[in-house]
Design goal:
- The protein has a domain at 25-72 and 112-173 and 243-337 and 400-408 and 454-516: 3-Layer(bba) Sandwich (FAD/NAD(P)-binding domain), CATH 3.50.50.
- Helices cover 24% and strands 21% of the residues.
- The protein is of the alpha/beta class.
- Flavin-N7 protonated-adenine dinucleotide is lined by residues 33-39, 56-59, 124-128, 131-132, 135-139, 235, 266-267, 304-307, 309, 313, 456-457, 484-485, 495-497, 500.
- Residues 33-39, 56-59, 124-128, 131-132, 135-139, 235, 266-267, 304-307, 309, 313, 456-457, 484-485, 495-497, 500 line the site of flavin-N7 protonated-adenine dinucleotide.
Length: 516
């Protein structure tokens, strides 16, 4: 099935005004749902191809400073800007000595970070124009080629590694921490200590590239610019230093003149209308008041609402009968990228430092157990003696989403990360043995040393080659595409956003080429 360029360009060029005045009846040639990595690639490439495109994003556009002069709040003083409509923050690290120091009551608001809670698994996601790029750690890793090929056997790896990974890396402005800065900075003492502990156990470490500017960070340390990574900012947003999608892909997309972004617009339902699609869209204020319910139609629909958002929209459409021919494989192949968090205690004579950069730059590698364990900061502003790690483990543990008609939501069935914990404990038992150290049980909720009940890397639900064809075209429906982390089959072995971006670039290149 081929899309003609004419069909993609469409006949109308209606501007979309996100206001009461434009409550319904808008038709656009292309709609992109969400504004994370996959969505941003789609928006830019459609805009460059001359296609009038509307981006519908449920979160805010984060460009207006609050009364404190800052757009985002910090991790140590979270307020209503921190989390998506919660009464209390739900930070991944609860505190120290079982005290819930990190969390506090907040006013319900369209904050930047959401934690979507399912039985046994809380999934962290970004909300706002830029999706996960607003809140993530910026670690920008190209996956190991063999493992990528195992996960995507039908994708041309040579094309990915020669063309699309370098393109994604360039577009996202990935940079590397200078060795001399890492060795000298007070703010990376915690990472150097973990490197020493790993070396005592015979493990190597690797530097992890990032989209946070290390030039900016060095200037922060010299006191020349406002502090962000060195001022305990990350999961609720960075006010400076990080190159997020709203500054990159999305800004470029808007500059084409063909792309309009509508923040605080949540797509709730997808139906067929004519040869295209109709969307039910709810516009809200930042405090959650519903401003309008809109009806938007389009010829082509690109779903970039993330693994959770895209999977839920499609499952709801299939199981309520709106799009009954959607494939049986929807909801399958979901995984947390093998995420397991671990905390160790250090000796009194080996402090981690009270100053810690919020941006991780080092990982411990354990190839025999297929563990890639990033050394995460604990930027508490005091000495905690805690070494914290995000272990990315490679295994076949998968969950599955189903649609629950009673709540009208997608529900995750997740059986826990036994294989992930086995692998991570193999690595960290050895590090503890070699250093005479122990695990910390006071850092995560539930008194666990290994936290497998939350993740940062939701992947899958509409997997490439199963729920879609080999380029993200949804089976059974012409003009309907998945362009985000829902395409990735649950595990990548490294942090996912470079892969999500590169895969979206690849898919869009083919979809637009075939449309010509
Ligand atoms: P994503 O970026 O999640 O964007 C989806 C967007 O769609 C969001 O803006 C949603 O608000 C929006 N949306 C959802 N439903 C709807 C709807 N119905 N209507 C309208 N809009 C909707 O999707 N990855 C790395 O590679 N390196 C890291 O260092 C890293 N650190 C992380 C740290 C944290 C705290 C978190 C939460 C994630 C981290 N990740 C990291 C994961 C990474 O951000 C994630 O894989 C990508 O953002 C996923 O990209 P997608 O395009 O799939």
């Amino acid at each position: 099935m081929k899309i003609t360029r004419r069909a993609l360009l469409g006949a109308t060029a209606l501007s979309f005004l996100p206001s009461r005045a434009q409550a319904s009846g808008t038709h656009v040639p292309a709609v992109v749902v969400g504004s994370g990595y996959g969505a941003s690639v789609a928006a830019l490439r459609l805009g460059q191809a001359g296609v009038r495109t509307l981006v519908l994003e449920m979160g805010q556009r984060w460009d207006t400073p609050g009364p404190d002069g800052k757009v985002f709040c910090g991790m140590l003083n979270p307020d209503h800007r921190s989390m998506w409509f919660k009464d209390r923050t739900e930070a991944p690290v609860n505190g120290i000595l079982f005290l819930d120091l990190a969390n506090r009551p907040i006013r319900r608001h369209a904050g930047a970070l959401d934690r979507v809670n399912f039985p046994g698994m809380g999934v962290y996601v970004g909300r706002g124009v830029g999706g996960g790029s607003l809140v993530n750690g910026g670690m920008a890793v190209t996956p190991d080629r063999d493992y990528f090929t195992r996960q995507f056997p039908t994708v041309d790896a040579a094309e990915m590694y020669d063309r699309f990974f370098p393109l994604a890396t360039k577009m996202l402005r990935v940079n590397h921490i200078p060795g001399h800065y890492f060795e000298a900075s007070d703010y990376y003492r915690f990472a150097r200590l973990s490197r020493t502990a790993a070396a005592r156990a015979g493990f190597d470490t690797a530097f992890v590239p990032n989209v946070y500017s290390f030039d900016y960070m060095a200037r922060e340390e010299r006191g020349e610019v406002p502090k962000s990574a060195l001022g305990t900012e990350v999961i609720y947003g960075n006010n400076h230093g990080k190159f997020t999608l709203d500054q990159g892909y999305l800004a470029e997309a808007e500059r084409t003149g063909n792309v309009t972004i509508a923040p605080l617009h949540q797509v709730t339902r997808i139906t067929r209308e004519g040869a295209g699609y109709a969307l039910a869209v709810r516009e809200i204020t930042p405090d959650g008041e519903v401003v309008a319910e809109k009806h938007v139609t389009c010829d082509r629909l690109f779903l970039g609402a993330g693994s959770l958002g895209t999977t839920e929209l499609l499952l709801r459409a299939r199981d309520t009968g709106d799009l009954p021919d959607l494939p049986a494989e929807l909801g399958e192949g979901w995984g947390p990228n093998g995420n397991v968090m671990v905390a160790r205690n250090n000796h009194l004579l080996e402090p981690t430092g009270s100053r810690q950069s919020a941006i991780p730059t080092l990982a411990i590698t354990d190839p025999s157990r297929e563990v890639f364990a990033e050394v995460a900061p604990v930027p508490a502003g005091i000495e905690t003696y805690v070494s914290l790690y995000l272990a990315i483990t490679r295994n076949e543990e998968r969950g599955r989403f189903t649609y629950d008609p009673a709540t009208d939501r997608a529900v995750l069935q997740w059986g826990g990360a036994r294989a992930g914990i086995t692998a991570a404990s193999g690595t960290f038992d050895r590090i503890n043995d070699a250093n005479g150290t122990v695990y910390r049980y006071d850092v995560f909720g539930g008194g666990k040393a290994f936290a497998d009940d939350f993740c940062y890397h939701p992947l899958g639900g509409a997997v490439l080659g199963r729920a879609t064809d080999d380029h993200g075209r949804v089976k059974g429906y012409r003009g309907l595409y998945v362009t985000d982390g829902a395409l990735v089959p649950g595990s990548l072995g490294v942090n996912p956003f470079v892969t999500i971006t590169a895969l979206a670039e690849r898919n869009l290149a083919t979809i637009l080429h075939e449309g010509r």
